[in-house]
Amino acid sequence: MNELHASLTKLRATSKGQIFLAGDFNLPDIEWENNSFKPGGQYPSLSKKLLEIQAEFGMEQVVSEPTRGNNTLDLFFTTNPTLVEKSTVVPGISDHDSIPLIIVNCKPKINKQKARKIFLYHKADLQALKSDLKIGQIYL
User: Hey, which bits of 7-109 come out as E strands?
Assistant: First the structure.
């Protein structure tokens, strides 16, 4: 968990984008509906650390269905849950009964180029320009 915390700290320092973190965390002690511990859990210190990391980095865990037995072990965290269009669990191909399928709407940011002003000097009205530049009796 310390390495995860260090990686997220570096990521936050170098990027202003969203965080998406997914994986098989194998922490059955957490009840994700209310971010609390199950009584008599096997890994209380690791579970506590993961919940602290989640809170510190402002992430929300979006998988709401069990992925192995009655436990939600495969998790998906994000700092922007509004981008998650759908979170569902599908039959698994590993030792887990199922795996989460997350559909995220990440539209690329397109920077519109600002319009440039292009002067067409060959179309200029030179007489009017000279008239506008008249200072007293001196012409430029």
Answer: 20-24, 30-31, 36-37, 60-61, 74-78, 84-91, 98-104
Tokens read off for 1:
């968990």
For the chain, what percentages of helix, strand and coil (3-state, to nearest 5) are there?
30, 25, 45
Q: How far apart are the first and last CA of the chain?
A: 74
- To 10 degrees, what angle do helices 44-56 and 2-14 make? 10
Q: How far apart are CA 32 and CA 61, in angstroms?
A: 7
Q: Give the pTM.
A: 0.68
CB 93, CB 99: distance < 8 Å: yes
Distance of CA 25 to the CA centre of its chain: 20
Of the candidates 42, 47, 45, which has an alpha carbon nearest to the alpha carbon of residue 30? 47
Q: Output the six-digit token pair for 18.
A: 């969203």
**Residues 5-59 pLDDT 10s:** 999 999 888 887 888 888 889 899 899 888 888 878 888 899 999 999 999 999 9
